[in-house]
């Protein structure tokens, strides 16, 4: 098979690119990264330093005309989790007006306007997408599936926790693959037993083997247009109908609960640590230690709001320091900086307790060492990048499984 050309949206510091280009069957030909809340575009600077500035766009994707984006075989991106409700439809058009700044509609717009539509999509988001918003659980994901179905795509999704498959970080994310109706995979899915596809034959169970938890599969249709779906889907506010694995083809959803099936090697925090080379600045002083112990500890206390309202506050304790023989907790964007925090990782070493280094955070996401190191970029900013990033190994495995499926069907 020929190399697949890729367009990478919401590129961050290039996690999708690293994972896909590892297989050598993918080539990123255009990328876009824009951070709306900062004047200096730090992530874009790192991306350009690692991959070159050619064909990289550092402009708000909402302002990039589709005509400026080259045709590509595959569109990828980890788009922000927002409110995806549909305000109205455009007259005499299949287009949509979602809220400005809701970047899902930029993906939708590119797919709508491209005459030569990408054959494949690989998108990633937090797993709560399947349950959002709280007053209409599952509506946001239903809108995505319906809009992709309207554009000629079948979708296969799965919630994957990287640590369940031996990777060094517990990071749960929903990954969904789209297959355009012009592809052999779409045709194969259309003629397959859905349950077999979800636990054996699909791309995601090939990459990440799974067993079913629930014996029965849930089937339902996405009825009406996008506006009525936005207004009426799960209006009673019950549980989301979307389980952690599923497919959608021709507006019909099939979903089932699965569990990871893996007995290979497992990486833990001890495997990613710098031994003896970590910056002395990372160590926690004796004066600061009580603050860390308080924040990490169990609490039952009376607190007061700014307006003077008193309330009882309680929370359980966290493991402190973090267990070296386990995968890490999920890295968050506030992982960097010296200030004590309940959520930052702390490890015990021969020299004492310390925070994780930028290199260690990169290793937890399976990035190359010092991938984010660049003059003018602080360690706190490097930690922020990793809090926003994905686990490269997950993308690597999905890309590899997709290539194998395409080759098999082309034979």
Automatic annotation (TrEMBL):
The keyword Methyltransferase applies. Gene3D superfamilies: DNA Methylase, subunit A, domain 2, Vaccinia Virus protein VP39. Keywords: Methyltransferase, Restriction system, S-adenosyl-L-methionine, Transferase. The active site is at residue 81. GO terms for biological process: DNA restriction-modification system; methylation. It is an enzyme of class 2 (transferase). Its EC number is 2.1.1.37. The keyword Ion transport does not apply. It comes from the Bacteria. It catalyses: a 2'-deoxycytidine in DNA + S-adenosyl-L-methionine = a 5-methyl-2'-deoxycytidine in DNA + S-adenosyl-L-homocysteine + H(+). Belongs to the class I-like SAM-binding methyltransferase superfamily. C5-methyltransferase family. This is Cytosine-specific methyltransferase.
């Amino acid at each position: 098979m020929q190399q697949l050309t890729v367009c990478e949206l919401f590129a961050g510091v290039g996690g999708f690119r690293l994972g896909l280009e590892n297989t050598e069957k993918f080539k990123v030909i255009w990328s876009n990264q824009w951070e709306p809340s900062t004047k200096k575009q730090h992530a874009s600077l790192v991306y350009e330093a690692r991959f070159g500035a050619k064909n990289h766009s550092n402009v708000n994707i909402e302002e990039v005309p589709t005509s400026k984006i080259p045709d590509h075989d595959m569109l990828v991106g980890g788009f922000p989790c927002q409110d995806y409700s549909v305000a109205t439809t455009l007259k005499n058009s299949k287009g949509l007006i979602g809220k400005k700044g809701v970047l899902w509609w930029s993906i939708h717009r590119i797919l709508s306007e491209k005459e030569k539509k990408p054959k494949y999509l690989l998108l990633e988001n937090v797993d709560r997408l399947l349950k959002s918003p709280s007053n209409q659980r599952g509506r946001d994901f239903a809108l995505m599936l319906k809009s992709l179905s309207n554009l000629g795509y079948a979708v296969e999704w799965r919630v994957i926790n990287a640590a369940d498959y031996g990777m060094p970080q517990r990071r749960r994310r929903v990954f969904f693959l789209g297959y355009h109706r012009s592809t052999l995979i779409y045709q194969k899915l259309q003629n397959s037993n859905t349950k077999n596809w979800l636990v054996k034959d699909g791309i995601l169970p090939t990459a990440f083997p799974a067993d079913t938890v629930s014996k029965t599969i849930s089937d339902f249709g996405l009825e009406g247009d996008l506006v009525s779906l936005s207004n009426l889907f799960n209006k009673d506010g019950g549980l989301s109908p979307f389980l952690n694995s599923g497919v959608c083809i021709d507006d019909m959803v099939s979903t089932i609960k699965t569990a990871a099936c893996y007995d290979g090697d497992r990486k833990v925090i001890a495997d990613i640590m710098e031994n003896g080379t970590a910056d002395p600045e990372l160590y926690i002083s004796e004066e600061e230690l009580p603050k860390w112990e308080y924040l990490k500890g169990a609490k039952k206390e009376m607190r007061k709001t700014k307006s003077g309202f008193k309330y009882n506050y309680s929370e359980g304790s966290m493991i402190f320091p973090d267990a070296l023989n386990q995968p890490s907790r999920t890295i968050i964007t506030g992982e960097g900086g010296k200030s004590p925090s309940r959520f930052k990782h702390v490890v015990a070493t021969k020299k004492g307790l310390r925070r994780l280094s930028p290199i260690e955070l990169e290793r937890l996401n399976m990035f190359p060492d010092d991938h984010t190191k660049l003059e003018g970029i602080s360690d706190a900013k490097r930690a922020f990048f990793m809090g926003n990033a994905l686990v490269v190994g997950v993308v690597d495995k999905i890309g590899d499984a997709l290539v194998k499926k395409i080759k098999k069907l082309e034979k």
